[in-house]
Amino acid sequence: MISGVYEIGVRGLDDSYVGSSKDIKRRCRQHLRSLRKGSHHCQALQLAYDIFGKRMQVRILHIASLDAYSRNPRCLIPIEQHFIDTLPGTRYNTSCSAYNPMLDPIIAARMGDTNRGKRHSWSRRRAVSLALKNKAFSASHLAAIRRYASKRVGVPLSAGHRRAISRGNTGKIISDKTCEKIGRALRGRKLSPSHVRNLRDSHLGYKQTPEHVANASNARARFNDGQVRFIRREFESGRQGYRELADKYRVCTRTIYLVVKHKEYYAD
User: Fold this and answer.
1) Quick one: CA torsion of 135, 138, 140, 144, rounded to 10 degrees?
2) Which of 61, 95, 127, 172 is within CB 3.0–4.6 Å of 104 for a Cys-Cys bond?
3) Concatenated DSSP letters for 204-264?
């Protein structure tokens, strides 16, 4: 087994494809298999193979010890990048970056154009959600997210972006755990004057629906009429007391007492 950096090119020409692998022989056999099938990921290398065929050759540029590779599997990347930058001729590589193809502006723009507007299936979104749930991000990753978020402060969202957020949140049911997290985050928070102005300006000229007006007429509403009737029926039958009903609806026993005694029940 030979580890290192290799070059696939055309005999007599400087143009080549540069790569690195733990097992160069096995990796080159994979390249050759894909080229013969016409399904190689590098279109430039595939085109060169279709034209020149038997003139293609493999040359080992650098050999690394297996011990060094086992200690640091990424040790070959700087060496590969060095050959990509310094070898004469044109590189067949899809990207000019050995570290990460997305660091290449051309590749990043191409991937962005491919994925822009693409809608993932529900199963795909669910799989991504489960993969990211409870994932521990590194300190550098969190710092990068904060830097990006700080650049977006004050940047208005486009109309299409706002519509997409609205569609995503329509009919969404927030779990009790999420509600508790939101409540803890907002508890005791003081809004800045600019935030207050933005909230006020966002509601100027806003037309409320009849349902919105009806709900806003009693902002303290905690129960609907059906829940009030159920609470009274359960208490009168003796099946549940003040404490049981308060724990069920997550209110204090005083509120249940007012509902049962027909004094005040904050119904909508």
Assistant:
1) 10
2) 95
3) TTPPPPHHHHHHHTTTT--B-HHHHHHHHHHHHHTSS-HHHHHHHHT--HHHHHHHHTTS-
Segment 193-247, tens digit of pLDDT: 888 787 777 766 666 666 665 555 554 556 777 788 888 888 888 888 888 888 8
Question: CA-CA distance, 112 to 106, in Å (whole number)?
Answer: 10
Query: Which CATH number does the domain 3-106 belong to among 3.40.1440.10, 3.20.20.140, 3.30.450.20, 3.40.50.1820?
Result: 3.40.1440.10
- Close Cβ partners of 239 (under 8 Å, ≥ 6 residues apart): none
pLDDT digits (tens, 9 = 90+) for 145-177: 888 888 877 788 888 888 888 887 777 777 778
Integer Cα distance of 245 and 239 in angstroms: 10
